[in-house]
């Protein structure tokens, strides 16, 4: 017993798309079989049935109506599945044998562009990565085929850099070589669990597609890893979409260092586009800044936040544009009114390119374009560089508007294959066929009244169905009233008879012929209109980009006005000065006027590392984040929440947030903490801004303190680092480092104690905190009274001993004597010279820990000059000569010096 012909056809098609769920078109349904059916029935909650397939057991089967397939496809693709659409390639009524079928499109998370799947205000990226193993060059591409955006860059293979780029674009699918390292793939899956990984064969990267796709493409501008990665991406798009899209026509070749670098953890911790807990937009910086009026503007603003600028001129241009709009409020109001009526031109153009656009969407395009001339007129009165450039480059697309306006109905049918889309007057043939169709139906409508009068049969009806066409229906009780020979019997039913007349048949042929011809002609004309629009895709993309930028500037103006933001100034002195800065998000979620503003001064010299102490819940983390967000907003080109701000452009922002701050959703181990600190120390520069919160708290007190202390030393003393740093800690012992390490300055959050209660004043002041108020914070959190009382008792017992704290403070004092190790070595030669000349003066300065040469003939209570005539002095000299300075530790050296001084005082 063998497979049926239809099932053999199914398996042949399935073999070419083995990694997909195959939607196999059978009549008005898409059917799924075997394992695909089992998966689909579970994921889509469909009834699993069976079908005879020629084998002993029935094939598992489930199906969906073809006209409602999009919602089912969206569910599968959003869950990481790929769906192959197999269509009937010929009319079943004309087919001989099995209907020809083939895959028309493969829908994947990175290539599916249906509106039910896409997020309106967020790009849908697919990423391609190719590693050139000979030189470790890695080519990266990020494309959104719904908008035609195509970005590429290259870097030496570095896990952290690539993860940062993935975090920046958040692709839904990543294309990799089939032999790419499994360890790195596992890291990607671990960090970004929602991303689908697809592997390509090596030959996919060697196809020369990229040069054919882009006009004026110069191969010399790209290295080999970028070329191969791009060819791999385009070959995958061709494989899934079955054609190369015309909206993919421009390459944005960028360098990673052209934008502010924000690593994966910092993006999450600063909550740039989603909050930490719910992973939603609300509570993020984007939530505050997004007052855009178009979907294009919303996506562009998200990109601005993900990729802040580092070019001073570009930042100043945006700031000046926002300032000019702010000073022209009538312009701003008119602009917003225009923007509100503009649809998503980018994605409509993408549908034109994929040939999936319908007439209603083209009308939306027409209506959107109609607002562009008014926007250009408004821009004509502005003078800032950026807005003037927009005015010069804005194409009003009036020819496209004219074509759509005269060709398409204002309210066309949804389907392009059902007619009623071409406007009267555009085509004489359409008008003629539409007249014939309309008048024919009027004749048929009048025929019913005419026959009722002639026959006197009031229940007589003229009806239509697809099998018999038009006919006259008379009930059997009225058959006797029909004049003899007037009608020709067509069909006999139980309760009635159906008739036709020669005139009715002739009119039916005219009506049905004209209707079918009209539908075909309207579809043909629509395709011509769509193809004409497609030839102008580049122009429309350019216009949509300018509108998106204008919308972003309008949004930044709105939030500056609503929240009393100020224009920041930009300096090149590596200094950040913020007066009365505020956290842009926190101040929006608490009652108006309650947020406590704070000043910030930080540089790379005397105030390089601000050591911030104070109790939990007092506002240390909020303060640190607000500084980073103000810097980032400045580099977006936004006004900022403060009284004034003078900002130095940063090249990178790093954050290290502890486990209690929801680090990596359950992966808050000490190892992760140390990995993040290591990443910062290796990659930060003097132009970077670093936020470190509670470094070392994931381990024991001594270990944690030691690590935090060492990190501070390294950041302040390494001249290749010395980055601007905000360092929050509960290790109050570290406050002793101010004055010992250049650049460390103590700050704390002020707290007021009132009747055994504490009040957080939220104000950052100079000086370190002397305690953590941990028990008071626990009390505020609702810990039971008996627990609080016992904690106070234990604390009193611990504080009465004071051993451990004294140990730590002594350790800090002693350890900083190690600072003089190099100085001790440098003084070695001077000491030997004194010995050689038989004159040595030794003293120990307890404050500065230095070896000083003193003159002889001192008083009794100071080191005396050693004479070499008596025996004791000779013995001391011999002892001094025997000291091997180079093999002494700093502490041993200080002990030797103390011993020498003690013996000298006895002489």
From TrEMBL:
<keyword id="KW-0547">Nucleotide-binding</keyword>
<dbReference type="InterPro" id="IPR000432">
    <property type="entry name" value="DNA_mismatch_repair_MutS_C"/>
</dbReference>
<dbReference type="InterPro" id="IPR007695">
    <property type="entry name" value="DNA_mismatch_repair_MutS-lik_N"/>
</dbReference>
<protein>
    <recommendedName>
        <fullName>DNA mismatch repair protein MutS</fullName>
    </recommendedName>
</protein>
<keyword id="KW-0067">ATP-binding</keyword>
<dbReference type="InterPro" id="IPR005748">
    <property type="entry name" value="DNA_mismatch_repair_MutS"/>
</dbReference>
<feature type="coiled-coil region">
    <location>
        <begin position="814"/>
        <end position="848"/>
    </location>
</feature>
<dbReference type="InterPro" id="IPR036187">
    <property type="entry name" value="DNA_mismatch_repair_MutS_sf"/>
</dbReference>
<dbReference type="InterPro" id="IPR016151">
    <property type="entry name" value="DNA_mismatch_repair_MutS_N"/>
</dbReference>
<dbReference type="Pfam" id="PF05188">
    <property type="entry name" value="MutS_II"/>
</dbReference>
<feature type="domain" description="DNA mismatch repair proteins mutS family">
    <location>
        <begin position="688"/>
        <end position="704"/>
    </location>
</feature>
<dbReference type="InterPro" id="IPR036678">
    <property type="entry name" value="MutS_con_dom_sf"/>
</dbReference>
<keyword id="KW-0227">DNA damage</keyword>
<dbReference type="InterPro" id="IPR007861">
    <property type="entry name" value="DNA_mismatch_repair_MutS_clamp"/>
</dbReference>
<dbReference type="InterPro" id="IPR007860">
    <property type="entry name" value="DNA_mmatch_repair_MutS_con_dom"/>
</dbReference>
<keyword id="KW-0234">DNA repair</keyword>
<comment type="function">
    <text>This protein is involved in the repair of mismatches in DNA. It is possible that it carries out the mismatch recognition step. This protein has a weak ATPase activity.</text>
</comment>
<feature type="binding site">
    <location>
        <begin position="614"/>
        <end position="621"/>
    </location>
    <ligand>
        <name>ATP</name>
    </ligand>
</feature>
<dbReference type="InterPro" id="IPR017261">
    <property type="entry name" value="DNA_mismatch_repair_MutS/MSH"/>
</dbReference>
<comment type="similarity">
    <text>Belongs to the DNA mismatch repair MutS family.</text>
</comment>
<dbReference type="InterPro" id="IPR007696">
    <property type="entry name" value="DNA_mismatch_repair_MutS_core"/>
</dbReference>
<dbReference type="Pfam" id="PF00488">
    <property type="entry name" value="MutS_V"/>
</dbReference>
<dbReference type="InterPro" id="IPR045076">
    <property type="entry name" value="MutS"/>
</dbReference>
<dbReference type="Pfam" id="PF01624">
    <property type="entry name" value="MutS_I"/>
</dbReference>
<dbReference type="InterPro" id="IPR027417">
    <property type="entry name" value="P-loop_NTPase"/>
</dbReference>
<dbReference type="Pfam" id="PF05192">
    <property type="entry name" value="MutS_III"/>
</dbReference>
<dbReference type="Pfam" id="PF05190">
    <property type="entry name" value="MutS_IV"/>
</dbReference>
<keyword id="KW-0238">DNA-binding</keyword>
<keyword id="KW-0175">Coiled coil</keyword>
């Amino acid at each position: 017993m063998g497979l049926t012909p239809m099932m053999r056809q199914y398996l042949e098609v399935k073999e070419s798309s083995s990694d997909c769920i195959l939607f196999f078109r059978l009549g008005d349904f898409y059917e799924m079989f075997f394992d695909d059916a089992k998966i689909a029935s579970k994921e889509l909650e469909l009834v699993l049935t069976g079908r005879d397939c020629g084998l002993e057991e029935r094939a598992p089967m489930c199906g969906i109506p073809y006209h409602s397939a999009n919602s089912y496809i969206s569910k599968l693709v959003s869950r990481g599945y790929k769906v192959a659409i197999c269509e009937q390639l010929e009319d079943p009524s004309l087919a001989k044998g099995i209907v020809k079928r083939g895959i028309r499109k493969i829908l994947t998370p990175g290539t599916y562009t249906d509106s039910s799947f896409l997020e309106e205000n967020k790009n849908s990226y697919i990423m391609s990565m190719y590693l050139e193993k000979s030189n470790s060059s890695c080519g990266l591409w990020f494309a959104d085929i719904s908008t035609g955006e195509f970005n590429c860059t290259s870097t030496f293979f570095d896990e952290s850099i690539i993860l940062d780029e993935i975090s920046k674009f958040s692709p839904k699918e990543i294309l990799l070589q089939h032999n790419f390292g499994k360890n790195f793939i596992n890291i990607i899956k671990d960090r970004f669990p929602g991303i689908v990984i697809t592997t390509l064969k090596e030959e996919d990267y060697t196809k020369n597609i990229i040069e054919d796709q882009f006009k004026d493409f110069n191969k010399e501008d790209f290295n080999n890893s970028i070329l191969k990665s791009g060819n791999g991406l385009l070959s995958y798009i061709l494989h899934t979409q079955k054609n190369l899209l015309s909206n993919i026509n421009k390459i944005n070749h960028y360098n990673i260092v052209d934008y502010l670098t924000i690593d994966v953890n910092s993006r999450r911790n600063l909550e740039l586009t989603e909050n930490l807990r719910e992973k939603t937009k609300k509570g993020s910086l984007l939530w505050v800044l997004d007052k855009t009026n178009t979907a294009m503007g919303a996506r562009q603003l998200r990109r601005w936040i993900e990729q802040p600028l580092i070019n001073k001129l570009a930042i100043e241009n945006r700031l000046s544009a926002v300032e000019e709009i702010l000073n022209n409020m009538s312009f701003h109001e008119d602009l917003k009114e225009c923007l509100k009526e503009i649809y998503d031109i980018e994605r409509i153009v993408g549908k034109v390119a994929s040939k999936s656009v319908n007439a209603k969407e083209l009308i939306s395009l027409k209506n959107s374009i109609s607002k562009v001339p008014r926007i250009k007129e408004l821009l004509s009165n502005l003078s800032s560089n950026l807005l003037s450039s927009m005015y010069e480059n804005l194409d009003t697309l009036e020819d496209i508007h004219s074509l759509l306006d005269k060709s398409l109905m204002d309210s066309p049918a949804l389907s392009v294959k059902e007619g009623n889309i071409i406007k009267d007057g555009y085509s004489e043939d359409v008008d003629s066929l539409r007249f014939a169709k309309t008048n024919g139906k009027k004749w048929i409508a009048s025929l019913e009244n005419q026959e009722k009068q002639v026959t006197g049969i009031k229940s007589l009806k003229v009806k239509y169905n697809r099998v018999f066409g038009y006919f006259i229906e008379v009930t059997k009780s009225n058959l006797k009233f029909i004049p003899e020979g007037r009608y020709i019997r067509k069909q006999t039913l139980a309760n009635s008879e159906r008739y036709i007349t020669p005139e009715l048949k002739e009119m039916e042929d005219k009506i049905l012929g004209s209707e079918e011809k009209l539908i075909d002609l309207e579809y043909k004309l629509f395709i011509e209109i769509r193809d004409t629009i497609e030839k102008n895709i580049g122009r429309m993309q350019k216009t949509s980009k300018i509108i998106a930028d204008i919308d972003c500037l309008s949004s930044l103006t709105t939030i500056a006005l609503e929240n009393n933001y100020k224009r920041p100034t930009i300096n090149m002195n590596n200094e950040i000065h913020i007066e009365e800065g505020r956290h842009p998000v926190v101040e929006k979620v608490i009652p108006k006027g309650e947020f406590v503003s704070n000043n910030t001064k930080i540089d790379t010299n005397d105030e390089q590392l601000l050591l911030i102490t104070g109790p939990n819940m007092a506002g240390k983390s909020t303060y640190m984040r607000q500084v980073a967000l103000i810097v980032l907003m400045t580099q977006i080109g936004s006004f900022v929440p403060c009284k004034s701000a003078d900002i130095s452009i940063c090249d990178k922002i790093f954050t290290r947030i502890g486990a209690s701050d929801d680090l990596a959703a359950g992966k808050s181990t000490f190892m992760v903490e140390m990995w993040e600190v290591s990443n910062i120390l290796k990659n930060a520069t003097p132009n970077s801004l670093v936020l470190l919160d509670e470094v070392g708290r994931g381990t024991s007190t001594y270990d944690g303190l030691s690590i935090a202390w060492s990190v501070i030393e390294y950041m302040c003393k390494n001249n290749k680092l010395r980055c601007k740093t905000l360092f929050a800690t509960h290790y109050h012992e570290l406050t002793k480092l101010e004055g010992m390490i250049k650049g460390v300055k103590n700050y704390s959050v002020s707290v007021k104690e009132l009747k055994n209660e504490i009040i957080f004043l939220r104000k950052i002041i100079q000086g370190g905190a002397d305690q953590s108020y941990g028990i008071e914070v626990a009390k505020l959190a609702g810990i039971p009274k008996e627990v609080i009382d016992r904690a106070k008792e234990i604390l009193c017992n611990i504080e009465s001993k004071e051993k451990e704290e004294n140990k730590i403070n002594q350790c800090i004092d002693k350890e900083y004597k190690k600072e003089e190790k190099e100085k001790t070595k440098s003084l070695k030669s001077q000491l030997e010279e004194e010995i050689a000349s038989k004159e040595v003066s030794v003293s120990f300065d307890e404050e500065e820990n230095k070896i000083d040469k003193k003159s002889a003939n001192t008083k009794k209570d100071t080191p005396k000059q050693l004479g070499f005539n008596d025996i004791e002095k000779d013995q001391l000299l011999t002892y001094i000569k025997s000291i091997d300075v180079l093999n002494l530790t700093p502490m041993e050296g200080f002990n030797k010096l103390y011993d020498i001084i003690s013996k000298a005082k006895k002489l």
